[in-house]
Amino acid sequence: MGYKDQDSPPGVTQATMLKALVAAALVALVAADSIPDFVAPGSCAKVANQNNFDLHRYAGRWYQVQIIDIPYQPYTRCIHSDYDYSDSVNGFRVTTAGFSPNNEYIRLQGKIYPTKDFPPAHMLVDFPSAFAAPYEVIETDYDSYSCVYSCIGTDNYKSEFGFVFSRTPQNSASAISRCASVFRRNGVDFSLFSAVPHTSDCVYRA
Questions:
Q1: Is the Cβ–Cβ distance between 40 and 8 less than 8 Å?
Q2: Alpha carbon distances (Å) from 132 to 89, 182, 187, 194
Q3: pTM of the prediction?
Q4: DSSP class of residue 192?
Q5: Cα–Cα separations (whole angstroms), residue 54 to 29, 110, 117
Q6: Measuring CA to CA, which residue among 135, 159, 134, 132 is closest to residue 29?
């Protein structure tokens, strides 16, 4: 099975290059006069990854129902993503959409895919408008919930995010309960998570 790993110098994987660039950006942020809220002292949790991760079963519609707040994510409610499996990237072409704080409907497109560096459940987020970042599926049953961790660390600082995904925007209590247990077991503070509103006026057309 091939992995997406193109436009890199010989012997250097694309994921390694992106991680180095993001780490350099994180160092620059820490060295700045004011440290952004999403950069905190500490180290990333060493989380487990889903065994025998099945990309095909993971495809489809997912809803963000609980997250560690991402200041540079433009939407704050009704957040949903379509994961379209693509052989050409051995991963997903992803469309994510939702409403901004100003009630503007925003849609972004990118890719999420495995690399040679890690197991299949430890993927890379590749969106044009955001930092490249890891996407680690700690646990999923494919049909109702997915617990995802994304963290970049360097020099005793970390930029840490987490996601509880549900296959349905409402009635997601079981997904939240399951992922709360999963995150705590893996050393991630679930009190950092907050709910993503999914109200009756949401539209889902990612």
A1: no
A2: 16, 24, 23, 23
A3: 0.83
A4: G
A5: 36, 20, 17
A6: 159
Query: Hunting for tokens 């495995």 — which residue is that?
Result: 114
Q: Which two tokens stand for residue 89?
A: 């990237």
Longest dimension (CA), the chain: 52
Residue 6 parent element (H or E) = none
85-123 b/e (C-beta count within 10 Å ≥ 16 → b): bbeebbbbbbbbbbbeeeeeeeebebbbbbbeeeebbbb
d(CA 192, CA 84): 30
Tell me if 133 sits within 8 A of 126, measured CB to CB: no
Place of tokens 């079963």: 57
**Segment 85-127, tens digit of pLDDT:** 999 999 999 999 999 999 999 999 999 999 999 999 999 999 9
